[in-house]
Predict the 3D structure of the following.
Amino acid sequence: MSAHENNKVLIVTGGSRGIGAATACLAAQQGYAVAVNYRRNQAAANRVVQSINQSGGQAIALAADVALEHEVTQLFATVDDQLGTVTALVNNAGILESQMRVHRMDAARLQRIFQTNVIGSFLCAREAVRRMSTQQGGTGGAIVNVSSVAARLGSPGEYVDYAASKGAIDTLTIGLAKEVAHEGIRVNAVRPGFIDTDIHVAGGEPDRIERVKASVPLQRGGKAIEVAHAILWLLSTAAAYTTGSFIDVAGGK
Ligand SMILES: NC(=O)c1ccc[n+]([C@@H]2O[C@H](COP(=O)([O-])OP(=O)(O)OC[C@H]3O[C@@H](n4cnc5c(N)ncnc54)[C@H](OP(=O)(O)O)[C@@H]3O)[C@@H](O)[C@H]2O)c1
């Protein structure tokens, strides 16, 4: 089947590593043509694409910084050309910075966190809605936002800025779900807990999960693939009556 004949077209932002990479691979196994977006790590994105293509799936790697509006519009336009109109979006790209108390945070840091995590997710959702909305000539679709349990826990002493950005993602999920429900688009979110990925390196504590896992009722960190399964369910027709909803993938945390 050529890319244009495949009617399931997924964009995963930050699909080169961690939860995004696991989501891209699982989606390809379920028949999606996948755009694996990344910011800098082209080698990692290429590895994901290669692994999908070698397994008989369809994927392309596309560089774009979701924090930059013109790069987001270019990303979606390239997907239109190369894979066909997007039917599914996973707003996964997200960053955090060194663990720090709020009283030490400067405005530049706050801008970086909110620009990527919040504005990036809004911009990608906007581009997806413009293409999916039945009121704008589209055939519908599904969006999953990757929030965090930090949105309800607050991440004190670590990154309250990051937690607050995920709180905004939760509100985006609720509001956009209601706004586009009658246009054939469902919008949901997953809230992962402590998942074993590279993101903890950016916080300055690569072994963070080892330190915090005892506080998790299931007594361990999670795996990226365990989050990917929840994301793929929310995107699927099995979740046809689910919108504005959240799945916590957090071991009971
Ligand atoms: N891991 C956890 O414990 C955890 C818990 C709760 C929520 N989450 C959320 O899950 C999502 C994925 O986290 P992860 O742990 O898988 O992260 P990760 O391993 O650090 O991977 C981050 C991914 O996002 C991409 N990215 C970062 N900034 C970007 C930007 N401005 N534009 C485009 N892509 C960008 C990276 O691209 P490059 O490879 O090019 O750098 C990479 O593919 C994030 O939203 C995070 O907040 C994670």
Q: What stands out?
A: The first helix runs from residue 18 to 29. The longest strand covers residues 185-192.
